[in-house]
Amino acid sequence: MAKKSELGVSSSTGNKNKKTKKKSKAQPGAVAMKVKAPKLNNPFETIWSRRKFDILGKNRKGEERRVGLARSRAIDKRKKTLLKEYEQSGKASVFVDKRIGEDNEEIGEFQKALLRSQREFK
């Protein structure tokens, strides 16, 4: 039995050969994750800047402008930043009283004035 497995001959209950292992790795979910949907380019969303002289095999950066995509990105960016600022614009901040003795109600007005004057002289 040991010689059969060493020679590469496997029984139905033994190890699977290499080909079946490769097939088992490629599951339909894994393949679907790797394959992305192709981007559909709308020719009306792109604007091409005109070249004065055409040179074969030369690609120029910034030749194609995607106006629709740029506009949608700008709108999304404005919604993320300006919308938050606009929503918070009506809210008023709360005044925090940091004067000495104001947070303590047990101290009288005279004691508060003494504590404040002592703080000034230090």
TrEMBL record:
GO terms for cellular component: Noc4p-Nop14p complex; small-subunit processome. Its main location: nucleus. The lineage of its organism: Eukaryota, Viridiplantae, Streptophyta, Embryophyta, Tracheophyta. This is Uncharacterized protein. Residues 1-36 are annotated as: Disordered. One of its GO terms (biological process) is maturation of SSU-rRNA. Belongs to the NOP14 family. Residues 16-25 have a biased composition (Basic residues). The keyword Nucleus applies. Keywords: Nucleus, Ribosome biogenesis, rRNA processing. It is found in: Nucleus, Nucleolus. Involved in nucleolar processing of pre-18S ribosomal RNA. Has a role in the nuclear export of 40S pre-ribosomal subunit to the cytoplasm.
